[in-house]
Amino acid sequence: MLVMASIANHQHGQKTNIRPILFLYLLGTFSAALAAVVFSFAFPSTLHLSSSAGDISPPSGIVEVMRGLVMSMVSNPIDALLKGNYIGILVWAIGLGFALRHGNETTKNLVNDMSNAVTFMVKLVIRFAPIGILVWFLLPWQPRFLHTVGLRATAGRAGWLYVTGGAGG
After folding, report:
1. Is the separation of the CB atoms in 114 and 9 below 8 Å?
2. From first to last of its 169 residues, what are the pLDDT tens digits of the chain?
3. Element (H, E) at 78
4. At what angle do helices 86-100 and 62-73 cross, to 10 degrees?
5. Residue 135: C-alpha distances to residues 11, 61, 168 (Å)
6. Residue 27 φ then ψ, to 5°
7. TM spans, by residue (predicted)?
8. Are 2 and 118 in contact (CB under 8 A)?
């Protein structure tokens, strides 16, 4: 919704300031990846997966990866929403944004109002996120949880929180 609203409300000739945003996005992405690699070597951990590796086959090459990417771009928008196909959702949002550039002002106002509503909900979720993280961290330290799950899993969760908290900020 936010991408669609920003594209639909863009006026021709208006300065967008997209270059610094893209630069900061790339800088943040690469520094987060670098921090993740450094912390994974500094604090090694094991991951126990429930499914066997024999059930999953990796892509055979770049052609198969690119084919999957293109196929996810042209998916049905409802199917993309239901299956969490973020590439498909993004492509449809960009396409609808360009199509809505030629729409009426009332349509653009509706899209802008929906964008503001989504922004409000995201801000609300972000404000309450520390409470959820605190509960997620403190729940394993209850005696009945320690008895059923064990101290090793609880210590693993504490280590994970330490590594991600240290890498994130």
Report:
1. no
2. 777 887 787 777 778 787 898 899 999 999 999 999 998 898 888 777 666 666 677 788 899 999 989 999 988 989 988 998 999 999 999 998 888 888 898 988 998 899 999 999 999 989 988 887 777 777 666 666 555 555 555 566 666 666 666 554 4
3. helix 77-83
4. 50
5. 45, 42, 19
6. -60, -45
7. 21-43, 80-100, 120-139
8. yes
